[in-house]
Amino acid sequence: MPLDINTLTAQQQLASIYILYYDRAPDPAGFQFWESLLVEHLEDNNPNADGMSLEAIATEFSNQAETRAVYDFFDPEAENPSAL
Fold it and tell me: What is the distance, to the nearest Å, from the Cα of residue 59 to the centroid of all Cα atoms in its chain?
């Protein structure tokens, strides 16, 4: 049965990004950092407000060194980044 991410809390959705990108639970400091941005965004409920949406956070994960180490195609320095 597929997971319906809409049934998860914001914190569970954020944790799922860690699991899907890195196959691990979030580290406490990193989770707290991203959670504060997500909560700020959700509380303001304004796309131009400070903070970050879950989608923006997931996009930022693709720019992280840990992501590039796991997935070569995210690394702009990779020999052939478009090759999967």
Answer: 6
Three-point CA angle 69, 67, 73, nearest 5°? 75
Instruction: Please tell me the pTM assigned to this model.
Output: 0.72
Which DSSP state fits 48?
T
- Tens-digit pLDDT profile for residues 14-43: 999 999 888 899 999 999 999 999 988 888
- Quote helix, strand, coil % in the chain, to nearest 5: 60, 0, 40
- What are the boundaries of each domain within the chain? 10-74
Length of the chain: 84
Backbone angles phi, psi at 6, to 5 degrees: -70, -15
